[in-house]
Amino acid sequence: MLDGGFATLLEALAPDTPLHPLLWSAGHVLDPAKRALTIEAHLRFLRAGCDILSTSCSYQASVEGFSRSLPEITRSQAEEYVKVRSVRPILKNAHRRGHHII
Question: Average pLDDT for consecutive 10-residue bins of the chain (102 residues)?
């Protein structure tokens, strides 16, 4: 089973926390509390029996996207958001809970 409806679940978990207008759910990597929502959403998919987690929270995450949407950050910071903050916490939490990551 594959996860689905990621943005809808994020909005249900925190209706007062809108998605970033340009980065959508990838904007959640910018804030630790929002990053926790992303992790919680993925964990809910796993608890519901999901076999495959997609990294749907990162498809808008790119160095160019972060740089364009957040002109105040450096290119190095944008690379950090893409490489470290967008996918790694999700994979680490899934693995820690006994789910295999491919």
Answer: 75 87 80 83 83 68 86 88 69 70 56
The tally of CA atoms less than 13 A away on the side-chain side of residue 62 is 6
Position 83, amino acid: K
* 60, 82 Cβ separation under 8 angstroms: no
Structure tokens at 82: 């893409």
Q: Structure pTM?
A: 0.70
Domain extents for the chain?
6-96
Task: Give, in order, the Cα–Cα distances in Å from 38 to each of 5, 42, 61.
Answer: 12, 6, 14
Gyration radius of the chain over CA positions = 13
Residues found in the chain: 102
CA–CA separation, 49 vs 31, rounded Å?
28
- Give the SS3 label for residue 46: helix
Helix (H) or strand (E) holding 36: helix 32-47
Residue 19, sorted as left (phi over 0), alpha (psi -120 to 50) or beta, turns out to be beta
